[in-house]
């Protein structure tokens, strides 16, 4: 059975021109889903980058020594 995650309402301010582009490209009823997916994707990319940087640091003994 799939668990249902609670939702939070978020109010953001964007330029009118950006909103119009979203309406044209995504569709009026699909903007919220598009923004949710885009933000999730961006957060995953940032997390992956951080993990990769930690791995690179850990693989380099000189960097570990400098970090201490």
Task: Write a structural description.
Helix content is 68%, strand content 0%. The chain is elongated. It has helices at residues 16-25, 31-59, 61-67. The protein has a domain at 38-68. It is mainly alpha-helical. It has three helices and no strands. This is 5982_t:CDS:1.
Number of helical runs? Answer: 3
**What does the radius of gyration come to?**
19 Å
Shape: elongated
Chain-averaged pLDDT: 90
Uncertain segments are: none
Helix content: 55-70%
What's the total count of β strands? 0
Classification by helices and strands: mainly alpha
Described by its quaternary structure, the protein is: single chain
- Series of H and E elements: HHH
Strand content: under 5%
Largest sheet: none
* Span of the ends, CA to CA: 47 Å
Organism: Ambispora gerdemannii
Protein name: 5982_t:CDS:1
Throw out a few tags for this protein.
68 residues; mainly alpha; 3 helices; 5982_t:CDS:1
Please render the helix and strand layout as text.
Layout: H1 16-25, H2 31-59, H3 61-67
Q: Summary?
A:
The chain is 68% helix and 0% strand. With 68 residues, the protein is mainly α.
């Amino acid at each position: 059975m799939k668990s249902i995650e609670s939702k939070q309402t978020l109010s953001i301010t964007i330029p009118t021109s950006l909103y119009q582009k979203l309406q044209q490209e995504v569709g009026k009823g699909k903007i919220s889903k598009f923004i949710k997916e885009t933000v999730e994707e961006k957060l995953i990319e940032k997390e992956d980058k951080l993990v990769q940087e930690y791995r690179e640091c850990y693989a380099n003994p000189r960097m570990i020594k400098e970090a201490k």
